[in-house]
Amino acid sequence: MRRVRYEAILFDLFDTLVLFDRDRLPLVQLDGRAVRTTAGHLHPLLAERYPETTLDAFHDALVWSYQEAERRRARDHREIPAGERFRLCYGRLGLDPGAVPEEVTGRLLAAHMLHLARAAECPADHLALLDWLRGRARLGVVSNFDYAPTAHRVLERAGIRGRFEAVVVSEEVGWRKPRPEIFEVAFRRLGLGARAALFIGDRPEIDVLGAHGVGMDVAWLNPGREPFPEGLRPPTYELGRLADLRGVLEGKG
Ligand SMILES: [Mg+2]
Questions:
Q1: pLDDT tens digits, 71-111
Q2: pLDDT(11) > 70
């Protein structure tokens, strides 16, 4: 079997290797509207301890805490772990974040992550690509995600965890893409340098910028055929579908 021109292929996880489908999140009625959210499953777990907390207020605080965590992450690319994000949510609800028992946060986190993991799926053509890559390149994952066990669980549910020699998640590293630190952890685990690997991801300002920043070639997954943002160095390759990577690696792309 012929190996491809890169020793290793490193994938972004969400919306690259696996697709996140919001329509698979639980449906809950809020203010007479049907909303896809985990809030309906999480709220009873918090209300057991804090019965004055309403579902509507909890949902608002949950959404706000996500947006606030994203604002803070965008400032310096430091990861805000999911537990910390939940403490932002408690503060928004007027609770003392330090007084909420760890056990309550643990139960919220478990329920939240269970539903997120169920909403992620690895399409058949992605699985076929991974089958084709077997023996042709070493594989890794570099993911921005705030709770590492869920990233591993998503791969396990898809039956592909064993394909990857390195699965690096920002929650474990403390830094998110595009910071070099997270890519460097992957290089160390695989024992190779940036020039030996190709990165594939869907976000120009995270995946393409980050991979170029450490000296990797990068394939931008762009199913929506969006224009590439001005001012960023363009990707080495552009893919309409992940499965098109095979043609690129065979020199037909
Ligand atoms: Mg992504």
A1: 999 999 999 999 999 999 999 999 999 999 999 999 999 99
A2: yes
Q: From the CA of 47, how far away is ligand 1's center (Å)?
A: 33
CA of 142 to the centre of ligand 1 (A): 10
Q: CA of 186: how far to CAs of 32, 139, 147, in Å?
A: 46, 10, 18
Strands 237-239 and 166-169: unpaired
Confidence check: pLDDT of 253 > 70: no
Q: What are phi and psi of 175, to 5 degrees?
A: -120, 145
Torsions phi, psi for 85 (to 5 deg): -60, -40
Could you count the other beta carbons within 10 Å of the beta carbon of residue 68?
A: 17
Q: Is the dihedral of CA 100, 106, 108, 112 positive or negative?
A: positive
Task: Indicate the fold that domain 8-19+121-249 takes in CATH.
Answer: Rossmann fold (3.40.50)
Ligand 1 centre to CA of 228 (Å) is 15
Rounded Cα gap, residues 141 and 11, in angstroms: 5
Is residue 174 within 8 A of residue 148, CB to CB? The reply is: no
When pLDDT is averaged across residues 52-56 and rounded to a whole number, the result is 96
Residues with CB under 5 A from ligand 1 (ion): 12, 14-16, 202
Query: And the tokens for 188?
Result: 């160390």
| Predicted model pTM | 0.95
Cα 171 to averaged position of ligand 1 atoms, centre (Å): 15
**How far is 7 from 190, CA to CA, in rounded Å?**
10
